[in-house]
TrEMBL record:
The lineage of its organism: Bacteria, Pseudomonadati, Pseudomonadota, Gammaproteobacteria, Pseudomonadales. It catalyses: dTTP + H2O = dTMP + diphosphate + H(+); UTP + H2O = UMP + diphosphate + H(+). Pfam families: Maf. Transmembrane segments: none annotated. It is an enzyme of class 3 (hydrolase). Coiled coil: none annotated. This is dTTP/UTP pyrophosphatase. The keyword Cytoplasm applies. Gene3D superfamilies: 3.90.950.10. Keywords: Cytoplasm, Hydrolase, Nucleotide metabolism.
Length: 194
């Protein structure tokens, strides 16, 4: 069986992969995450997930029997990708834009070995209650939103802003576990239940 590598520095993705009982190693996968002109959010997250998996494979060039998992998550509001906030004002603007509204969270997962790369994109809907400016400011001060897509972490303090989730909770956190398990099984990497 091929050794599994996770091409991500995200502690959330590490925790989620551990949750389903899979042994893995971490591999660096630094890629340019700038959206291309006219690129849809769906195409964007899939391209980045595939790119991270491929970057991980390239890093492991001397290893033959490996399988690399890459993933990417985007928060999408009115067709616009909300990336990681560049500063306090950007984060507060994002939280105010999300306040009282529904938005989409797209997470792509890609698995690659030396022969192929397969990917899945999972769409979830998240509804925020009204978030006051004061709440958004207090949230920023916690430091949590600084490196999160859309300026919030559903698995953290921002859970109090979320009134409803439709779809995969784990995908909103950063890795759709049901789809990831199925994809890895296609590469002969079984989950705990196999």
């Amino acid at each position: 069986m091929a050794q599994l590598y996770l091409a991500s520095s995200s502690p959330r993705r590490r925790e989620l992969l551990t949750q389903i009982g899979l042994p893995f190693h971490i591999v660096p996968a630094s890629i340019d995450e700038t959206p291309e002109s006219g690129e849809s959010a769906h195409a964007y997250v899939e391209r980045l997930a595939r790119g991270k998996a491929q970057a991980g494979l390239n890093f492991l060039a001397q290893r033959a029997d490996v399988c690399v998992l890459g993933a990417d998550t985007a928060v999408v509001l009115d067709g616009r990708i909300l990336g990681k906030p560049v500063d306090r004002d950007d984060a507060l603007a994002m939280l105010q834009a999300l306040s009282g509204r529904e938005h989409e969270v797209l997470t792509a997962v890609a698995v690659a070995d030396r022969d192929r790369c397969e990917a899945r994109v999972v769409s979830s809907r998240v509804v925020f209650r009204e978030v006051s400016v004061e709440e958004a400011e207090r949230y920023w001060e916690t430091g949590e939103p600084q490196d999160k897509a859309g300026g919030y972490a559903i698995q953290g303090l921002a859970a109090v802003f979320v009134s409803r989730v439709e779809g995969s909770y784990s995908a909103v956190v950063g890795l759709p576990l049901c789809e990831t398990s199925a994809l890895l099984a296609d590469f002969s990497i079984p989950s705990w239940q196999s």
